[in-house]
């Protein structure tokens, strides 16, 4: 069976789902064992989505500047929320365009943001302990488990259920709610859910009759927290997944507690202590430690996209949420689902968070957004690097995504790390990526993060290799560096630089 695709027998039908493991687990080619938390970096999620009958339901993740461009006749109309007749886009035309965009996503990438832009990002590793704030822009910072719950919850509305956004379509996309629901349902694969325009029924009325989760927004088992339909720091898509029979947010809390235990061992054999200390010395000397500091090799900060210099599109993906932002409130954790009428409402603590950092995470105000400093634990599993996955070099020096994943070759961690820190190699990688029109259109470049450990920066090739060895050896047991240095005090003069 494909990894992460559970099959269930449900009411006389065979159903195949996609679980978190489809993207957040992989198979070790050497041992043939499943490695939980490692990104499935050659998964062609875009192609899978493009092959679906109704990819158009996911149009907010594609590059659709305006639905109006896809209107071909005034025969397919709905009565919108203001009582006016509004045409729907042509279903075939929209489907074709969304398919075209999804089919050009980079393998190992997925577009989880609803910004009407095609900016898929690299599936990150989910070795989540200490790696807060979560998401490439660090927007999931508040709530239980330092935002991990907030991120994992986001998957179920923003990423898995377009209908969950129907109350926000006007604010986020400038699309009337009825037009939004009609667009999603007019092309539905299952005839039960297929909306036919021009009958005397609004799309929302039609959907209410066939909704598999009546009384809940969208089709997933979601709960509208007290701030709904507004969004908040703990519910950036407005909703919280919670199944009847559980308590409010209980499943998200549980998955977060488990995610923080995911702790694979590095792929390469343990480094000898002298070599590690040498690499560590170079790492410190090169200033990496300014940001990749502490037990988990991150200062847990978000750096402005202009400063880190990587592709800026993803950093701005949550900008429009500013219009619908409300205070972070939750139901008390012991609230049963379905939520009773007088359920207790609690304010989620957010005062501890730096306001400027939140502006960067969401690109609110005049901020152009930013990217969080990711932890460097277990880098051997997470090539290609950076949020766009653009820093890729193959096992035989194949350059960029054009030389690797575009050809079905999985990038090599060591060679890709060299391209991350050596400007000569990086230039070649960026050039290779830029030669591919589709990569350019998907905002994948491999640019930025200009922190070099190369001859121009005064480092020898030997120092460069030592730091790569060091980086590839980092796991949770390297977290306690103090202990490590005490044990190996005499191994290198570089440690205290
Ligand atoms: C189709 C692929 C896919 C699936 C399925 C998927 N994810 Fe993700 N996940 C991603 C991508 C891509 C990102 C990066 C999103 C961004 O910030 O742009 C991500 C990011 C994350 C992060 C943030 C990690 C960090 O260090 O910042 C967490 C946590 C996470 N996902 C949890 C989950 C959970 C839990 C599920 C299942 C309910 C899930 N994901 C299903 C692709 C996927
Ligand atoms: C000013 C802060 C800063 C400094 C200094 C810095 N980094 Fe980073 N690093 C970041 C940020 C932010 C990202 C994420 C950027 C993105 O994905 O767009 C990142 C990403 C990375 C990644 C990719 C992780 C992944 O999973 O894709 C690696 C590896 C890395 N840095 C190593 C280093 C090394 C080695 C140095 C020193 C030569 C260094 N960094 C210096 C902020 C910094």
Notes on the protein architecture:
- This protein is of the alpha+beta class and 497 residues long.
- Helices cover 29% and strands 8% of the residues.
- Strand 3 and strand 4 form a beta hairpin.
- The termini are far apart.
- The chain has a domain at 1-36.
- Helix 9 packs across helix 16.
- The protein is globular and about 75 Å long.
- The site of one heme C has 24 residues, from helix 1 and helix 4.
- One heme C binds next to helix 1 and helix 4.
Jot down its keywords:
497 residues; two-stranded antiparallel sheet; 17 helices; globular; binds heme C; Cyt_c-like_dom; cytochrome-c peroxidase activity; metal-binding
List the helices and strands and how they pair.
Elements: E1 7-10, E2 13-16, H1 20-24, E3 25-27, E4 34-36, H2 45-51, E5 77-79, E6 85-87, H3 91-103, E7 109-110, E8 121-122, H4 148-159, H5 169-173, H6 177-185, H7 203-210, E9 222-223, E10 240-241, H8 250-259, H9 273-285, E11 302-304, H10 305-308, E12 329-331, E13 345-347, H11 355-362, E14 370-372, H12 400-403, H13 413-421, H14 423-434, H15 437-441, H16 461-473, H17 481-487
Antiparallel strand pairs: 1-2, 3-4, 5-6, 7-8, 9-10, 11-14, 12-13
Residues 136, 286-288, 290-292, 303, 308, 310, 371, 373-374, 376, 379, 382, 385-387, 420-421, 449, 451, 453 line the site of one heme C.
């Amino acid at each position: 069976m494909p990894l992460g695709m559970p099959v269930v027998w449900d009411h006389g039908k065979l159903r195949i789902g996609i679980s978190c493991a489809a993207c957040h687990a992989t198979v070790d080619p050497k041992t043939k064992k499943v490695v939980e938390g490692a990104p499935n970096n050659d998964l062609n999620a875009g192609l899978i989505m493009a092959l679906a009958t109704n990819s158009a339901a996911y149009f907010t993740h594609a590059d659709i500047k305006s639905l109006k461009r896809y209107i071909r006749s005034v025969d397919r109309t709905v009565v919108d929320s203001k009582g006016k007749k509004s045409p729907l886009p042509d279903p075939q035309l929209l489907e074709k365009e969304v398919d075209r965009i999804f089919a050009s996503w980079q393998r190992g990438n997925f577009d989880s943001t609803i910004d009407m832009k095609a900016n898929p990002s690299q599936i990150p590793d989910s070795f989540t302990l200490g790696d807060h704030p979560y998401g490439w822009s660090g927007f999931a910072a508040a709530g239980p488990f330092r935002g991990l719950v907030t991120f994992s919850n986001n998957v179920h509305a923003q990423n898995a259920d377009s209908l969950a956004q129907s109350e926000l379509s006007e604010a986020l996309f400038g699309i009337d709610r009825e037009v939004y629901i009609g667009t999603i349902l007019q092309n539905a694969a299952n005839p039960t859910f297929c909306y036919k325009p021009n009958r005397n029924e609004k799309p929302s009325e039609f959907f209410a009759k066939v909704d598999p989760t009546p009384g809940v927004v969208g089709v997933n088992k979601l709960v509208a927290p007290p701030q709904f339909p507004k969004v908040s720091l703990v519910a950036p898509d407005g909703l919280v997944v919670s199944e009847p029979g559980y308590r409010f947010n209980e499943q998200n809390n549980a998955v977060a507690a488990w995610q923080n235990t995911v702790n694979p061992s590095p792929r390469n054999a343990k480094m000898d202590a002298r070599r590690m200390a040498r690499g560590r010395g170079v790492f410190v000397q090169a200033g990496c430690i300014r940001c990749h500091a502490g037990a988990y090799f991150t200062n847990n900060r978000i750096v402005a996209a202009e400063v880190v210099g990587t592709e800026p599109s993803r950093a701005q993906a949550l900008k429009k949420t500013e219009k619908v932002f409300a205070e972070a409130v939750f139901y008390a954790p012991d609230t049963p689902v379905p939520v009773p009428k007088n359920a207790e409402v609690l304010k989620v603590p957010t005062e501890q968070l730096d306001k400027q950092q939140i502006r960067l995470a969401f690109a609110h105000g005049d901020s152009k957004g930013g990217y969080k400093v990711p932890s460097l634990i277990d880098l051997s599993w997470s090539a290609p690097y950076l949020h766009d996955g653009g820093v890729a070099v193959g096992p035989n020096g194949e350059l960029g995504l054009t030389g690797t994943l575009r050809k079905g070759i999985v990038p090599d961690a060591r060679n890709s790390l060299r391209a991350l820190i050596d400007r000569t190699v990086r230039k070649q990688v960026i050039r290779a990526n830029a030669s591919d029109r589709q990569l350019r259109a998907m905002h994948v470049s491999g640019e930025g993060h200009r922190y070099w450990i190369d001859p121009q920066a005064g480092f020898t090739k030997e120092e460069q290799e030592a730091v790569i060895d060091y980086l590839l050896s980092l796991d949770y047991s390297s977290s306690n560096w103090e202990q490590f240095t005490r044990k190996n005090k005499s191994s290198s003069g570089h440690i205290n630089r």
